[in-house]
Design brief:
Layout: E1 2-8, H1 21-30, E2 34-39, E3 44-49, H2 54-69, E4 75-79, H3 80-88, E5 99-105, H4 111-118, E6 125-130, E7 133-138, H5 148-155, E8 159-163, H6 164-174
Antiparallel strand pairs: 1-3, 1-4, 2-3, 5-7, 5-8, 6-7
Helix pairs in contact: 3-6
């Protein structure tokens, strides 16, 4: 059985889609997924499945969530080893007030879109894209242009963002 993490997009932020983690855990269990755990309120669900294709898992879980909540909740599934690699590949080591993020993308963005994102590098923000993951370093919160929506729009790929600290804790806890 493979162990996965589902990163749900846009839940419990901004007051739009509020889901209790206990409800989310029960829901994933009702989908036939095993050893389900949640990690913090931003929609990180750890689970086991015999299914080896993450795109199949994404489609099945999204469909079930839509039936349960009456609206589409996009999510991105990664294996635990993939999460460990994402963290290890992060080119940024935040210092002081800086914060690093990882945007978990649905697919690898087109080169022209990556180049466009790189054009926004500044004293406030830095960016890097490796495969299906975008890395962000926010140096100056006041001057930063970074948001998940900004990254999605520029890269033209759906995604969800977690801070590097959360990703490190997930990698350490579940590897």
């Amino acid at each position: 059985m493979q162990k996965y993490i589902a990163f749900l997009r846009a839940i419990n932020v901004g007051g739009t889609t509020i889901i209790k983690m206990t409800d989310l855990k029960q829901m994933f269990e009702s989908f036939g997924l095993e050893n389900v755990e949640t990690y913090i309120q931003t929609g990180n669900v750890i689970f086991g499945s015999q299914e080896s294709d993450t795109s199949v898992l994404e489609e099945q879980i999204e469909r079930q969530l839509e039936i349960a909540y009456g609206k589409r909740i996009q999510l991105f599934v990664r294996t635990i080893p993939e999460v460990v690699k994402m963290v290890a590949k992060c080119p940024f080591q935040p210092q002081g007030e800086e914060t690093a993020y990882i945007a978990i993308l649905q697919s690898k963005p087109a080169r022209k879109n990556v180049d466009q994102l790189m054009s926004f590098r500044s004293q406030a923000d830095d960016f890097s894209v490796i495969g299906k993951d975008a890395y962000i370093l926010r140096r100056d919160r006041e001057k930063s242009i970074f948001s998940n929506n900004f990254v999605e729009k520029i890269l033209d790929v759906p995604g969800t963002t977690r801070n590097l600290t959360t990703m490190k804790k997930l990698a350490e806890k579940y590897q």
